[in-house]
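Example record for the data management plan.
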Amino acid sequence: MSSPTDSLTADQTHRRTPPLSFEDLPGLMSLQTGDEKHGPAATSTLDVLWVLYDEILDVSAAALDDPARDRFYLSKGHGPMTYYAVLAAKGFFPVDWLAGFGGAHSRLGHHPDRNLVPGVEISSGSLGHGFPLAVGTALGLRAQGVDSRVVCLVGDAELDEGSNAEAMTVAGSFDLSNLTVVVVDNRSSSHGWRGGVGAHFAVEGWIVQRVDGRDHQALAVAMRRTAATVPTLVVAEVEDQS
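Corresponding structural encoding:
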């Protein structure tokens, strides 16, 4: 299991130049101070986001508008601290932006804004929107003959929103093999699901994988393992926040 141990201090990290490493993330996150940080929502995504940007996604700060780039949608946008830290570590924007997190004149709001933050594909935070948008994007890319992946990260509690059930069904019906949904499962949903989160996706024709959400190798293997004709779900299990 991977964890950001022996990390640099925030001041040391601030002075370094991207690209930075996973061990730098705690220092980058500590630069983001103030209220309304949704800390548990952010830290639950730490390992998934790092593995995506470090090993999986074909996207870079130098090719933000490349039509062939992979798309990542953070539907769980109410806790963006880790997202911002990873984007800064990968050079999408300057590290010194992090210190202004949530400020009146900062680009880095409590919900990510695609018009203000380089590398952010959708403005999110209102739960239940990112997954349907990802389905639409996957359909659009396929119609254009663009061979790119769409990866959407949602929280398990976010799946309480009915729009996600519709998106799940549509993606399965259209065999959207270019779509991967990662559910960070910290068991914080209001009601839970009989048979677990994956059972509902499986009924709709998705390939379902469950992994330790802190294990970088397991996450990378799962997110690379996609099916040729159906969408993929990866359930990343992390610490219980219920």
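Summary line stored alongside the record: The two ends are 22 Å apart (CA to CA).
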